[in-house]
Structures are given as structure tokens and as C-alpha cells.
Write a structure and sequence with these properties.
The complex is a heterodimer of chains A (582) and B (80). Chain A is α/β, with parallel strands linked by helices. Chain A has three domains: 5-238, Rossmann fold; 332-440, Luciferase, domain 3 (Roll); 449-581, GMP Synthetase, Chain A, domain 3, CATH 3.30.300.30. In chain A, 33% of the residues lie in helices and 23% in strands. Chain A has 18 helices and 28 strands. The longest helix of chain A has 20 residues, at 562-581. Chain B has one domain (3-79): Orthogonal Bundle (Non-ribosomal Peptide Synthetase Peptidyl Carrier Protein, Chain A). Helix content of chain B is 61%, strand content 0%. In chain B, helix 1 packs across helix 2 and helix 1 crosses helix 4 (67-79). Chain B starts with a helix and ends with a helix. The chains are: A alpha/beta (582), B mainly alpha (80). At the A-B interface, helix 5, helix 9, helix 16 and helix 18 of A face helix 2 and helix 3 of B.
């Protein structure tokens, strides 16, 4: 098999089932065979080259799910350039933040040109003025028409820059070579081998700027000259049934999604929407990118068994963009496995002891072929099975590094091993994840830097400056991750300020980051644990809190359900209106 | 369609799709008061489009901060 994405594109298009199918909001489908995708990409390649794009240049792409994304993406690759997919604006979101963040990502990736959809391009003025890519911002339509030959690429050349995090202070561009991507895709294709009776076909609503959507869905289909059916993420969120109906109608055998998507289907898909649907052909329902909740997996199996969904299809997996994608897969034809472990053992003693009333953790399976795992202590020494430590991974698809950031690269890659920053243990060769060593908040499959959340409450009256910790975790039996903010009240805070702190903090975090905090825990000054050099210890804060050893918090408001959230904030809104009125 | 009718439609969308059971007023801000994160903002945008059969674009949306802004935008789109 070819060792470059370009090689796959040239080889594809021979099989009648090879191509992209886009499903729109009325469920109508548009088809592009891989041969046609290649022709369109060749036209874009000519335009890019005559514009002055050189081999190795980074070309940023900002498109919704659609054929234009692929024209730009493959066009850039054919021109020998490196595509950098970025996300389009969030609907109804805060435009100024989006524009600023996008500018930062253009700078970090050193993008020379931005290709955007005409709708997105209209609003990018500020971003382009800030980042000043020297070839500017263009739509596919305004590229010069010119037939220029594609440029040859080598397996060691960079094939993709993907950003590891969502909203973060310091988004890191993960640089992947063609060879690393090819190695990952080879691993993935090994899990769904085509036979004479069955050619696998993937259905995905995942964004194309996300590793699971691009590397997990697009490349395996292209390299096997197979079908990929795509829906835009916004269609899925607006009407989750469209995902399941597309799987049924287009006979999808593989489809991945983060945990929250399975939860959304359980709560938002009606029986009427599922009428006539048949999910029995769905062989592999991959679940990754955020913590896997056993309660959600069970609820999904129960809910959709009526339409033929097979419990053994649910396949918890683990991976990260620094490894191109997958690091572990659980067995494909076995129902997911959860085991219960003693809580104290996990958090304090760092030992996994099975206990009937303990915390249930779902196995994310074994290292995928070609990958090896180690569990190490803080000093980098190997720990035996059953001991909790940092998860290190080594395999053929690791990143070259973070583009232009040797320091961060040196922290992540050590002697050929990737320090994933996750905590877990091995048991009978299977990996169980218990938390995160690195300070990252993961919500709905996206990573956020905690300091951005913490900084947003700096100016809230009554908060002790520099004394806030943001952390997320997956409570047992909860449908998704919970975001908590721990703040110390300043000694000078008045009773009124103290009272208003939880609401004021929620509002500040929402305003600055767009994230809804589930719990605000107000603490007395000096409660938050710190290192000897005075740095806040986030993981320790969370551990103490969960062990109920953090000094007694003020009344906690677990606002997890939209209804409850809405009611409480309405009370707050009313209070403010009354105040305003008075 | 009057502003009151559009507001009632938006309130219905918020009730059905976002679990917002209480009255909705034009001064409420989508992020701070309704506490909508990016997934819920997206849900609101798409469902409002479906309900009123309009298509909002980024230029319209960048300036929408409150329920009232959303109602006014829908009204303008319906008039186009």
C-alpha cells in the first residue's frame, strides 16, 4: 500500500463504490467518486501553484463539511503543501474570540494561505489582518485557473498539521508525516478488512478538522477505495436521528463518535424518527475522544436494541492526535467490558483493586498492532500491572513533533515514547484510564486549557486573585464529563459578594470561554493545594475534592441537566432584572 | 409575522430542544442568561432556522447576543 496520502488519491477511483456521499438536512445525498474528487483537487493544485504555493508551505482550510473542503485539502497536498484544517465559527458564538483564536492558530502553524468557504471568508477580515498570511485568504472559486502538474511528495514529508486542542491559551500544532498517517491508516484498516461478501463503509458526522473525522474516517475510505458517507456536525447536533438513519439507509458498517453523541441519541431520538431503521449492519460503533461512560453505553444498547443494534458493536477506543489517532482498541466482536475498582486504591494508593461496590471503569482495550504501552511513575520508571501511572505509548504513527515548538515536543516525546499525559493501568493487557496527569479539561471530545477558564474569574469581585482551579471528571453513572471550578474567596470579600460568587463565576467563565461550569466550589483562603514553588496542583485539588477531603465547600449546585440549569439561571436573570428595574 | 409571534416560536424551540421551561424575554442573553454552550447554541440556531424556514449566516449571527437580537434577525430574514 502507498505510503503517502497523494499515492492513495492517485490509486483511488477504480471501484464503483469508492467515493464521498454527502447527506443534507433533507436527507438527500450527493455523490462524488474518488476519481472526480481527484480531478477537482488537481484543478485546485494548479491554482495554488500558480499563486506561488511552494512544497512544504502550510495552507489553512476553513470549511464546513462539503466537497470544497476536499478540493482544498487534496489540492494542497497535490501541490506539495501541508493542509492545516481549522474549525469554522460556532453558530451564534462570540465572533471576536473566534477571529482572534483563528489568527493565533494561523500564526502557530505558519500558514501562508487561508482557503475558506465564501461565507466564512466574509467574516475573516480581522483574523487575516492580525495573522497576515502572505498569500492572503481565498475561496476555491477565486484561485487562478491553471493546469500545473502535481508535485511529488515523499513519505517523510509532512502530510497534515492538526491542532490538539480546542479553546486553549496555547493551541499546539501537531505535525504528522505522510508515513505516520499511512501507518495509522494501515492499523485502522486491519480492523475492518474487506471481503468478497462485505465491503466496509463508514458513516460519520464528525468534523473534518478533528483527528477522528479525518484520519479515522476519510483516509481509511480513500486508501481502500471505499465509500464514506458524511453529515455535517451541525446536522447531527440538531437532529441526532439523522446519523442513525444514515447508517441504516446507506448500510454503514463503521461509525465512530465521542461518548456525548451516544448520550444525545438516547435523550433526543424519538421512536417515530427511527421508524423503518435497521441498525443490525452496524458492526463497529467506535467510542473515543473523551471518557467512556458505562451508563451511556448501556442506555444506548437498551434504547436501540429494538432497531437491531448489537451490543458487541460498541467498541471503546483510546487515542490522541499526537499519535495520529488510535493507540488502543477493544475487541471488536465482544460487548464492552467494565470492571469495578476500589476508589481509595485508585486515587490514594494508585493501585487497581477490584471491589464489587467500587468505581466502574470501561476497558479501552489493547494496544493496536505496532503500538506498545508502558505505565510509568513520575520518574519514568515502569510500574507493574495493576499500578496506576502515566500512560506512555510508542508506535509507527507518532507525530514528528509540535510544529515550531521544540520545548513542548521534548516534553511530549521522550526517547521515541509519547507521554500521553493520561493516567491509567494495565490489567490482563488491557488499558483502563483513571484520569489525566496533564492539566487538560476535556468536554465533549474537545480539550480546553484550565488556565483560560481560571483566568476568566480573576476579575470577579470576592475571588482571591490567582486562586482558582478548573477541573473536569466523569462521575459514575453520569452521561458526560462534569466541569468544576474551585475558587478561594478573598478575605476581604463581603457576605454579599461571597453569596454571589458561584453565579458570578459561572457567568464570567461562560462569557470568556463559552463553557458552562457544572459546579462552583467556594473555599476559604489557603485551601487549594500548591507545590513547594507555589503553583496550584489541579489534579490534587480534584482528588481531595472527590475524596471529600478538601475543606467543606459551600453549598454545591450540580447543574447538569439543561432544565435545572435553565431554571436556576432564570432565577438569577430575574434577580438581575429586578435589580435593574429598581 | 409579529415580533411577539416570533418570540413565542423561539420560546417553543427553547422549550422543546433546550429544556427551557420558563418564559423567555428579549433582554435575556444567550450565553450568560440562557447558559448556552457551543452545542446548545448550534441547536438553537438550527432549530430556529427549521422553525421559521430562514437561513441565518455568520454575518447575521456575529451580532446576536440576546433573545431580542435573534428575534429581530429572524424578522428581518422573513421580510427579505
Amino acid at each position: 500500500m502507498s505510503e503517502t496520502i497523494n499515492g492513495w488519491l492517485f490509486a483511488a477511483g477504480r471501484h464503483p463504490e469508492g467515493g464521498l456521499r454527502f447527506v443534507d438536512r433533507s436527507e438527500a445525498a450527493t455523490w462524488f467518486g474518488w476519481g472526480e474528487v481527484r480531478e477537482r483537487a488537481l484543478a485546485v493544485c494548479g491554482g495554488l501553484r500558480s499563486l506561488g504555493v511552494q512544497p512544504g508551505d502550510r495552507v489553512a482550510l476553513i470549511f464546513p463539511t462539503g466537497i470544497e473542503f476536499f478540493e482544498g485539502f487534496f489540492g494542497a497536498l497535490l501541490a506539495g503543501a501541508v493542509p492545516v484544517p481549522l474549525y469554522p465559527p460556532v453558530r451564534l458564538g462570540r465572533m471576536s474570540e473566534y477571529l482572534h483564536r483563528t489568527a493565533r492558530m494561523l500564526e502557530r502553524s505558519g500558514s501562508r494561505l487561508v482557503l475558506a468557504d465564501s461565507r466564512v471568508r466574509r467574516i475573516l477580515g480581522e483574523t487575516i489582518a492580525e495573522a497576515r498570511p502572505d498569500l492572503g485568504c481565498r475561496t476555491i472559486g477565486d484561485l487562478p485557473g491553471s493546469a500545473m502538474e502535481p508535485v511529488a511528495v515523499a513519505p517523510a514529508d509532512l502530510g497534515l498539521i492538526q491542532f490538539s486542542s480546542g479553546t486553549t491559551v496555547d493551541p499546539k500544532p501537531v505535525a504528522l508525516s505522510h508515513r505516520a498517517i499511512a501507518a495509522q491508516v494501515d492499523i485502522l484498516n486491519g480492523f475492518w478488512r474487506d471481503t468478497d461478501e462485505l465491503r466496509h463503509s463508514c458513516v460519520s458526522w464528525l468534523p473534518l478538522y478533528h483527528d477522528m473525522g479525518l484520519i479515522g474516517c476519510v483516509f481509511p475510505a480513500l486508501s481502500r477505495d471505499a465509500t464514506l458517507t458524511l453529515l455535517g456536525p451541525e446536522l447531527f447536533v440538531a437532529r441526532p436521528a439523522l446519523w442513525l438513519r444514515a447508517l441504516s439507509r446507506h448500510r454503514g458498517t463503521i461509525s465512530p463518535a465521542p461518548n456525548f453523541a451516544y448520550s444525545l441519541c438516547v435523550t433526543r431520538v424519538s421512536d417515530a424518527e427511527m421508524e423503518g431503521a435497521d441498525l443490525s449492519g452496524w458492526r463497529t460503533a467506535l467510542n473515543g475522544a473523551e471518557s467512556v461512560a458505562p451508563s451511556v453505553l448501556r442506555a444506548f444498547c437498551d434504547r436501540f436494541a429494538r432497531w437491531g443494534f448489537r451490543p458487541e458493536a460498541l467498541t471503546p477506543v483510546y487515542g490522541l492526535s499526537e499519535a495520529a489517532l488510535a493507540v488502543t482498541f477493544s475487541d471488536l466482536d465482544r460487548p464492552f467490558r467494565g470492571r469495578r475498582f476500589d476508589r481509595e486504591g485508585l486515587s490514594r494508593d494508585r493501585v487497581a483493586r477490584e471491589a464489587p461496590d467500587g468505581r466502574e471503569i470501561v476497558s479501552v482495550g489493547r494496544a493496536v498492532p505496532g503500538f506498545r504501552l508502558r505505565i510509568v511513575d513520575e520518574m519514568g520508571c515502569d510500574l507493574p500491572d495493576g499500578r496506576v501511572g502515566r500512560v506512555w505509548a510508542r508506535g509507527p504513527s507518532l507525530m514528528d513533533g509540535y510544529l515550531g515548538d521544540p520545548e513542548a515536543t521534548a516534553r511530549a516525546l521522550r526517547d521515541g515514547w509519547l507521554d500521553t499525559g493520561d493516567l491509567g493501568f494495565l490489567r490482563e493487557g488491557e488499558l483502563y484510564l483513571t484520569g489525566r496527569a496533564k492539566d487538560v479539561v476535556i468536554l465533549r471530545g474537545r480539550n480546553y486549557a484550565p488556565d483560560e477558564i481560571e483566568r476568566s474569574v480573576e476579575a470577579v469581585p470576592g475571588v482571591r486573585s490567582g486562586c482558582a482551579v478548573a477541573a473536569s471528571w466523569l462521575p459514575e453513572d453520569a452521561p458526560g464529563e462534569v466541569l468544576a471550578l474551585f475558587v478561594e474567596a478573598s478575605r476581604a470579600a463581603t457576605a454579599v459578594e461571597r453569596e454571589a460568587l458561584p453565579e458570578a463565576c459561572r457567568e464570567a467563565v461562560l462569557g470568556a470561554t463559552g463553557l458552562a461550569v457544572d459546579r462552583v466550589v467556594v473555599l476559604a483562603p489557603g485551601t487549594l493545594p500548591r507545590t513547594s514553588s507555589g503553583k496550584l496542583r489541579r489534579a490534587e485539588t480534584l482528588r481531595l475534592y472527590l475524596a471529600e477531603e478538601l475543606t467543606a465547600p459551600d453549598p454545591v449546585t450540580p447543574l447538569r441537566l439543561a432544565g435545572a440549569m435553565a431554571r436556576s439561571s432564570l432565577a438569577y436573570a430575574k434577580m438581575r432584572f429586578e435589580r435593574r428595574g429598581g | 409575522m409579529s415580533e411577539a409571534e416570533i418570540l413565542a416560536g423561539v420560546a417553543e424551540v427553547a422549550r422543546v430542544h433546550l429544556g427551557w421551561e420558563d418564559p423567555l424575554t428579549p433582554d435575556m442573553r444567550l450565553v450568560e442568561d440562557l447558559r448556552l454552550d457551543s452545542i446548545r447554541l448550534l441547536t438553537l440556531a438550527v432549530e430556529v432556522e427549521n422553525r421559521f424556514r430562514v437561513r441565518l449566516d455568520e454575518l447575521d449571527e456575529g451580532g446576536i447576543e440576546t433573545v431580542g437580537d435573534l428575534v429581530a434577525t429572524v424578522r428581518r430574514k422573513l421580510g427579505e
